[in-house]
Design goal:
With 744 residues, this protein is an alpha/beta fold. The protein is built from 22 helices and 23 strands. The chain starts with a helix and ends with a helix. The structure holds adenosine-5'-diphosphate-glucose.
Length: 744
């Protein structure tokens, strides 16, 4: 619009000035002409009256004089006539000008003396008048009297005003016409070709590479189009080369690395970039409470921890809820931005939700309904109809956003978690050709538990629109297959592990998620300084340090952990002053009462237990309730002798794997709840039942007193598992499975 104004405004200004100058000249000319006519008319009428006036004055015939002046009273416009005697006294006057007699008329004396007729402009009452005065003389040129004819000139001004009005209307019409014509020309010459070129480029981006660009001319726009086409061509060739090279390398490499996953994606997905959808965004812009300035943080989320390295390695688009309070300031016109900030590797597309949508879909249905439904923690799920409606609405909103990103051929969509159970069906409605995988990051309950959900059928049907559904462990897959079998009319293929419903098959497989495990990474100088700083700040020198890193969530067993630490010290007082448990705790879902109450409960418990043992400066529990960046968490992992993961139920738990991945020194013990998915792989962890506080506290003792050799042996074996089954293998397996389906 601004550009259009720059283009049109000068033309409009020139036309308006030109027309106004022309109008002023035209009006001046008309005014002069009208006044001239008036003067001439007044003169000829006065001359006509003069002859009769002569007889009237000579005969002193006042009756005739009055009759004559009164004849002016009947005329259409305001007109009048005055007959004066030779002294300048009024003999007869048109009635409507009766007050005229008393006005100042210096010119009368002049006419009587010089016997020359003259015209003058005069204001009378509210009228502007023109008077023409003519002397009446006898044959010897002696003055007998005067005749004055008066005309109202206001019609001249009325005519002028009318003319101005007409000229203004013509000017406005002209300007509107010019704007319309310019718009039309601009659209024809510039906008239409640009629209066509943009559409062509969009189609090219979506994989339609055969069509030539639509701009045929050899002008500047044609040259630009050719340049764009060249870039497109180079891009196409480069992509093809990358795809072929990737396929070659894939054959050779053994261990899953970032590069191997990149090769796999290029080889399998070719030019079709990966499209990931999740609720939580990987990078969030928020206003810093202290500085008031926006800053970018990585949310405390297992999904983010797992998916971010994959997109960093392979590029693509991640569609997620823009939930940061400064998020909207950092996106382009399509709500996108390159991330990570400063080292853009992939595109984050933010979807905006209203407070009502977030409340119903996220806090309500997803986190007060599905989250407790899927975790066995004895927390009652809440299913509200209004939340369900909002959940459907938001799934549709995300589906619409995803649809605009899909390439025209062979699109792949990778959906994350329980927030989007209906998304696959909604995308497939418009794009049945899309291959869709859903990864379920939390446990799946048994059919009896799941059947308490009032929307069970719609949910299962929505999920079965996917081509592939992944869970962390086989038991979750089995639960899901059983649920589909019991609650839907479907067939379970136990050979392939799939659900067949209305001719459509969905594979259900276990893909244990993991972390990006840099097995060789040593501690940097900066990290070592950070470790020293933490040791100093919390007086950890010479003490055994145990660590917990969690979102504050009732499934993570934080209360049980504090109770076990308490019991451990109670039973082993020799560790007073020698053992410190540090808990890094990120507040999460704080709008939900259950979470809010949990935070208060933990605060009180920490306070109570620290008071119980307070002895000098030593406190057994250091509770750091805030969000930490991955860089801030790393030195804590490095210095911790023990890491405690005590989830009551957890799909996988990446903290356990992060701790193992960070322990190059092999000097650390992992205490791990057997109700986590990670417990299936990390069998060398000290496994616990977090509900059994006695057993749990004994496990802490076991970890504290474990001989160094034993620690090393266990850690070495766990590190082998985490490095081999890293997050790149996880993503690689899912993509291999999904793309194999396409070929079938
Ligand atoms: P979560 O329950 O969020 O996700 P979890 O596996 O516990 O995931 O990982 C939490 C992540 O947040 C870790 O990367 C950790 O470093 C980070 N984090 C924890 N506390 C933090 C803090 N105070 N500040 C900043 N970051 C913090 C779900 C399932 C899990 C599953 C994951 C991945 O519930 O079972 O393992 O997805 O699939």
């Amino acid at each position: 619009m601004k550009r259009l104004l720059i283009f049109i405004l000068p033309i409009l200004i020139i036309v308006a000035i030109g027309f106004t100058v022309f109008g002023i000249m035209q009006i001046r000319f008309t005014e002069e002409k009208l006044m001239d006519d008036l003067r001439r008319k007044a003169k000829s009428v006065a001359e006509g009256v003069e002859f009769s006036a002569k007889a009237i004055i000579i005969n002193n015939d006042l009756r005739y004089a009055n009759r004559m002046v009164e004849s002016f009273q009947r005329r259409e416009r305001l007109q009048g006539c005055v007959i004066y005697d030779k002294e300048g006294k009024v003999l007869a006057i048109t009635e409507r000008f009766s007050d005229w007699e008393h006005t100042e008329k210096p010119y009368i004396q002049d006419v009587l003396t010089n016997k020359i007729s003259r015209g003058a402009m005069k204001i009378f009452k509210d009228y502007s008048l023109y008077t023409y005065i003519i002397p009446v003389t006898d044959d010897e040129n002696n003055i007998l009297g005067i005749v004055e004819v008066i005309y109202d000139t206001s019609y001249v001004f009325t005519t002028m005003a009318d003319l101005w009005k007409r000229l203004s209307i013509i000017l406005i019409s002209l300007l509107v016409l010019i704007v319309l014509i310019m718009l039309l020309i601009q659209r024809q010459i510039f906008i239409l070709p640009v629209i066509r070129l943009t559409e062509w480029f969009q189609h090219f981006q979506q994989g339609e590479t055969e069509n030539a660009h639509p701009i045929k001319g050899k002008d500047e726009l044609g040259k630009l189009a050719s340049e764009v086409e060249q870039v497109a061509l180079n891009l196409r060739i480069a992509r093809k080369v990358v795809t072929e090279k990737a396929a070659e390398r894939l054959q050779k490499e053994e261990l899953w690395t970032e590069a191997k996953l990149r090769d796999l994606i290029h080889a399998r997905l070719g030019e079709n970039a990966l499209i990931v959808v999740s609720n939580r965004e990987p990078y969030m812009h928020v206003i810093d409470d202290i500085t008031g300035q926006p800053k970018c943080i990585r949310p405390a989320s297992g999904v983010v921890t797992a998916i971010d390295p994959i997109l960093r390695a392979c590029g693509g688009t991640w569609v997620a809820h823009g939930s940061g309070n400064a998020d909207s300031k950092f996106v382009n016109s399509k709500d996108k931005l390159g991330v990570p900030p400063g080292d853009n590797r992939y595109i984050l597309k933010r979807v905006w939700l209203t407070k009502e949508e977030e409340e119903g879909y996220y806090y309500g249905f997803a986190n007060e309904g599905l989250w407790p439904l899927c975790h066995i923690t004895h927390t009652r799920p809440m299913f509200r109809e209004s939340d369900w409606q909002m959940y459907k609405k938001v799934n549709q909103k995300f589906a619409d956003s995803v649809l605009t990103e899909l390439p025209s051929r062979n699109p792949f969509v990778f959906i994350q978690d329980y927030h989007f159970m209906l998304l696959a069906g909604m995308v497939k409605e418009k794009r049945p050709d899309a291959k869709i995988a859903l990864f379920w990051h939390i446990p799946w309950p048994n059919p009896e538990v799941f059947s308490t959900c009032p929307y069970q059928k719609q949910i299962l049907e929505g999920m079965l629109a996917c081509d592939l559904i992944g869970f962390h462990v086989q038991s979750h897959c089995n639960n899901f297959l059983e649920t589909a079998n019991k609650l839907l009319e479907s067939r379970i293929d136990t050979e392939k592990f799939s659900v067949v419903r209305s001719g459509k098959e969905t594979l259900v497989k276990a893909f244990p998620i993991s972390v990006d495990c840099d097995i060789t990474g040593n501690i940097t100088k900066v990290e070592s300084e950070q470790i020293d700083k933490i040791r100093g700040e919390f007086e950890l020198e010479g003490k055994i340090v145990a660590l917990g890193v969690d979102r504050i969530d009732y499934t993570k067993g934080l209360i049980e952990r504090m109770l076990a630490v308490d019991r451990f010290i109670e039973k082993n007082p020799q560790y007073k002053n020698k053992f410190v448990f540090i808990q890094l705790a990120a507040p999460s879902r704080t709008h939900i009462k259950h979470y809010h109450d949990l935070m208060n409960e933990i605060d009180e418990l920490v306070e109570k237990k620290n008071w119980k043992y307070s002895q000098g400066r030593w406190r057994p529990i250091v509770y750091l309730k805030r969000h930490f960046s991955p860089e801030e968490i790393k030195p804590f992992y490095a210095l911790a002798d023990i890491c405690i993961v005590s989830s009551l139920h957890d799909g996988m738990n990446l903290v356990a794997k992060e701790y193992v991945a960070s322990k190059n020194s092999l000097n650390g013990v992992l205490i791990l709840s057997r109700f986590t998915g990670a417990a299936r792989e990390l069998i060398d962890a000290v496994q616990i039942n977090p509900y059994a506080i006695e057993e749990f506290s004994d496990a802490i003792k076991l970890a504290v007193e474990m001989p160094a050799e034993e620690k090393k042996k266990r850690m070495k074996s766990m590190r082998k598992i985490v490095s081999e089954n890293n997050v790149y293998r996880w993503a690689g397996n899912i993509i291999t499975e999904l793309t194999a389906l396409e070929k079938a």
